[in-house]
């Protein structure tokens, strides 16, 4: 970097000559003509030296000198003056000038002074840098020491604390002010202070410091008096003032606690290993035992000391010769070390010291230290008991399979006896079953091991029978509990002792075959050696007896169920109705014989076909049936309505009924159908007969309705013959046409009512309109008289029905009401819509129906009219027609007050 010189002088010649000279010497020169100009340049730029004139036009040179040294204390300023007074020369040096020269100046002297000033400037700058670096180093060291987690303490040759860091404050609880100047014994327990003091004295007398450079464990003490273990690293250095010491102190309480925990854990691990129920041993990379717990040594028959350090594979493997002839990865050692995973062997065999073998399962887990495999741990279990239990469980499973595969007990007995006998070391198994009378047990099967020769004992059993309480089978029957006999030869209850003693029969186990408290039979097992009671085996055999009992119950229940099913099938086949059962998808799941006779056109089964297909319904009829099906619920089916449908030109009445499903069975709904084609024809004839009967009562009215217009037509015709005026003739002709049309309407109404409704199809019917038409027909009868008609019609109500049948219902009820009122009174007709139902009321003010006969009015042939005045079928037919349209009819009557018939039909919108 260029050296920058500032020249301050108001004489341009001096500025120019000085500038040329210094630039020639290689300096960077800046010139100022005044004091203010010089100060501005000094603030904007850093200079290495300045040449300053005393006499300036604005400020005195010494004032400028003061400000320049304040801006940069290390800046050397050379005074150049033409007035060599003491104040300008010696005075300037006193005020901070580096040197002074008088004008005219000597160029060589100026250069020498300037060179010396620049050297001094350089030394000052370097000294400042060194001082700054030293200060920074001290600060870094101080920060490092203060941030250390270990306590750092400095002490003089007398053992007094010169300095310690923040960690020491936190560790011992003393502040720096409390610690500085105090003896080191401040942080020691009382029992160590005398020894410490003698050591300090020995060092002061020139003794050698034995602990310098070593790390020792000691005991420290806090301000509160708490003691704790510490680790001390001690160092010393010597000066002309004497020996000084430094110590780094670490609180090792947690480390000591961890070490103690490790020792305790090691001891606990040893206890756990020795008390573990599993055998545990460790292996190194060569397969040699590194440790063996007590359980492992006991199960293998060795002592732990005998196994440590030895290769365990030849000692405990399945075949020692195999180990030598074929290299194998015994205990999965190499695999565990190779992949670092746990390896499990479920079924293997270990060999004891005496050569006997026992089944084991073991787990090999790798051991790693610092990521490097160093061996493995093998944990094994003796699974002899588990194997025995598995064998028993397998036998139980076999018994379940046998019982599931056979159909009768007789098929199962030979297999059951073999499997049961092989559950333990049994030599003979006998199946005792209650005979047909139910009061004795007889032999129904035997099994013996091929190595056993107990044929005489089996023959004896086959020819024996035991009532309750006699011999072992009878005792078990009575007690309903299993019986274990360790030695049958010394049991006085055993009646077969002579033969058993001769053949060597010794122990027995007798198991009841039962369900609940019901005993079906007894299973008797014998062995050729005395055997103590085995609770687990008794439990398994008892479960086996219960399974056989349940099988017997199921077989008996199945036989009863098959008989019941056959009876149900016969019953359903003999019913006079066709029965179909369907699921939610309307697929037929059952059809009785009559259903097949009615609806199976090809003779094939209806099961699996859709209901619409079986009944050959139209799309509209099918859709109506689906909607009806979907709206039905179990609650609504308690009183299911009867409806009608036509299949293959035959008329059927049908009704849905619920099929209560079990928890797991799918939901079903049944449908029963009756062929009512012939009944319908007879009913239509009966209805038509009743119509004609009612028409007979209206003949006189009809004659009146026709005779009056006929007489008028005759009179108008006679007048026309005599009239000559065309206008008059035309007027009479118009009257004749009107009378003729009235006659035509009367005849059409009577003919429409009298027409048979058997072939009439259901249509949309306006209830209020049909009531008014019925009134019109009734008016033509002989009994109507002066009855007042009152209508109370709600909003228009429509139902789907046979119009002629609905007319007959209304006409019959209105005629009965008019006859009851004897031609005088009030007839009230009402309709109302109640949700999906239409309510119709026909009320009169007649004498009412006596309570004694009110319940019989809908019975066929019942009438309160005198003989010859009625058939007694009117209200019966009304009831049938209303029911056929899925409606209801009820009557309210008070004697002397009148009668009200209330009818309810499903609305067309339902």
From TrEMBL:
Residues 137-207, 272-340 form the PAS domain. Residues 343-395 form the PAC domain. Residues 4-118 form the Response regulatory domain. The keyword RNA-binding does not apply. The modification 4-aspartylphosphate is found at residue 53. SUPFAM superfamilies: ATPase domain of HSP90 chaperone/DNA topoisomerase II/histidine kinase, CheY-like, GAF domain-like, Homodimeric domain of signal transducing histidine kinase, PYP-like sensor domain (PAS domain). The keyword Electron transport does not apply. Pfam families: HATPase_c, HisKA, PAS, PAS_4, Response_reg. It catalyses: ATP + protein L-histidine = ADP + protein N-phospho-L-histidine. It comes from the Bacteria. Keywords: ATP-binding, Kinase, Nucleotide-binding, Phosphoprotein, Transferase, Two-component regulatory system. This is histidine kinase.
């Amino acid at each position: 970097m260029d050296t920058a010189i500032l020249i301050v002088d108001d004489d341009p010649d001096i500025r120019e000559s000085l500038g040329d000279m210094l630039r020639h010497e290689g300096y960077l020169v800046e010139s100022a003509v005044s004091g203010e100009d010089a100060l501005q340049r000094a603030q904007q730029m850093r200079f290495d030296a300045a040449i300053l004139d005393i006499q300036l036009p604005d400020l005195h040179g010494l004032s400028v000198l003061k400000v320049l040294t304040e801006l940069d204390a290390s800046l050397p300023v050379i005074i150049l003056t033409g007035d060599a007074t003491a104040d300008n020369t010696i005075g300037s040096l006193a005020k901070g000038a580096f040197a002074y020269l008088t004008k005219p100046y000597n160029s060589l002297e100026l250069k020498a002074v300037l060179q010396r000033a620049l050297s001094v400037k350089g030394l000052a700058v370097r000294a400042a840098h060194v001082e700054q670096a030293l200060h920074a180093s001290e600060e870094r060291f101080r920060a490092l020491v203060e941030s250390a987690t270990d306590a750092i303490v400095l002490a003089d040759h007398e053992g007094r604390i010169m300095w310690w860091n923040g960690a020491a404050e936190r560790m011992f609880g003393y502040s720096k002010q409390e610690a500085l100047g105090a003896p080191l014994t401040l942080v020691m327990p009382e029992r160590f202070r005398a020894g410490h003091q003698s050591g300090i004295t020995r060092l002061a007398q020139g003794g050698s410091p034995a602990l310098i450079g070593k790390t020792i464990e000691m005991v420290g003490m806090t301000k509160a008096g708490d003691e704790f273990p510490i680790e001390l690293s001690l160092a010393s250095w010597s000066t002309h003032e004497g020996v000084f010491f430094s110590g780094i102190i670490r609180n090792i309480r947690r480390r000591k606690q961890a070490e103690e925990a490790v020792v305790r854990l090691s001891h606990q691990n040893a206890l756990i290993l020795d008390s573990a129920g599993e055998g545990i041993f460790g292996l190194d990379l060569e397969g040699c035992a590194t440790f063996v717990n007590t359980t492992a040594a006991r199960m293998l028959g060795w002592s732990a000391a005998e196994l440590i350090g030895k290769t365990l594979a030849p000692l405990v493997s399945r075949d020692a010769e195999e180990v030598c002839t074929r290299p194998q990865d015994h205990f999965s050692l190499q695999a565990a070390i190779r992949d670092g995973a746990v390896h499990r062997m479920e079924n293997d065999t270990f060999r004891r010291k005496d050569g006997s073998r026992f089944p084991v399962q073991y787990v090999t887990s790798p051991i790693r230290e610092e990521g490097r495999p160093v061996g493995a741990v093998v944990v094994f279990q003796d699974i002899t008991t588990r194997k025995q239990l598995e064998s028993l469980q397998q036998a139980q499973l076999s018994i379940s399979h046998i019982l599931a595969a056979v159909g009768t007990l007789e098929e199962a007995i030979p297999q059951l006896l073999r499997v049961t006998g092989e559950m333990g070391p049994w030599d003979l198994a006998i199946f005792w079953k209650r005979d047909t009378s139910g009061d004795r047990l007889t032999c129904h099967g035997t099994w013996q091991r091929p190595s056993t020769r107990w044929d005489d004992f089996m023959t004896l059993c086959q020819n024996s029978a035991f009532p309750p309480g006699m011999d072992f089978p009878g005792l078990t029957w009575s007690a309903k509990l299993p019986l274990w006999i360790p030695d049958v030869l010394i049991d006085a209850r055993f009646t077969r002792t002579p033969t058993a003693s001769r053949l060597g029969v010794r122990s027995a186990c007798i198991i009841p075959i039962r369900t609940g408290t019901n005993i079906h039979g007894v299973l008797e097992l014998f062995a050729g050696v005395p055997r103590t009671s085995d609770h687990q085996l008794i439990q398994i055999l008892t479960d086996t007896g219960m399974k056989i009992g349940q099988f017997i119950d199921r077989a008996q229940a199945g036989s009863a169920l098959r008989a019941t099913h056959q009876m149900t099938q016969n019953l359903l086949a003999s019913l006079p109705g066709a029965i179909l059962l369907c699921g939610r998808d309307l697929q037929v799941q059952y059809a009785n014989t009559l259903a097949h006779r009615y609806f199976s056109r090809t003779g094939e089964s209806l099961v699996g076909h859709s209901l619409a297909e079986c009944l050959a319904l139209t799309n509209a009829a099918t859709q109506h049936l689906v909607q009806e099906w979907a709206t039905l619920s179990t609650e609504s089916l308690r009183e299911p309505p009867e409806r009608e449908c036509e299949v293959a030109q035959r008329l059927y009445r049908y009704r849905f009924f619920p099929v209560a499903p079990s928890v797991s069975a799918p939901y079903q709904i049944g449908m029963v159908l009756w062929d009512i084609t012939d009944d319908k024809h007879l009913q239509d004839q009966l209805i038509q007969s009743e119509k004609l009967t009612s028409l007979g009562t209206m003949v006189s009215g009809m004659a009146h309705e026709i005779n009056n217009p006929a007489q008028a037509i005759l009179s108008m015709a006679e007048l026309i013959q005599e009239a000559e005026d065309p206008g008059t003739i035309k007027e009479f002709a118009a009257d004749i046409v009107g009378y003729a049309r009235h006659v035509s309407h009367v005849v059409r109404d009577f003919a429409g009512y009298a027409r048979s409704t058997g072939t009439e199809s259901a249509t949309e019917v306006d209830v209020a309109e049909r009531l008014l038409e019925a009134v019109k027909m009734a008016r033509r009868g002989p009994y109507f008289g002066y009855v007042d008609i009152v209508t109370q019609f709600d909003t228009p109500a429509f139902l789907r029905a046979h119009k002629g049948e609905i007319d007959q219902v209304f006409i019959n009820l209105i005629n009965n009401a008019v006859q009851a009122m004897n031609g005088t009174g009030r007839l009230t007709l009402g309709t109302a819509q109640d949700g999906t139902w239409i309510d119709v009321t026909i009320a009169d003010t007649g004498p009412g129906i006596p309570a004694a006969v009110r319940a019989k009015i809908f019975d066929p042939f019942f009438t309160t009219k005198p003989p010859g005045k009625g058939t007694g079928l009117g209200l019966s037919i009304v009831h049938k027609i209303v029911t056929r349209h899925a409606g209801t009819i009820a009557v309210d009557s008070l004697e002397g007050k009148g009668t009200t018939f209330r009818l309810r039909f499903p609305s067309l919108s339902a």
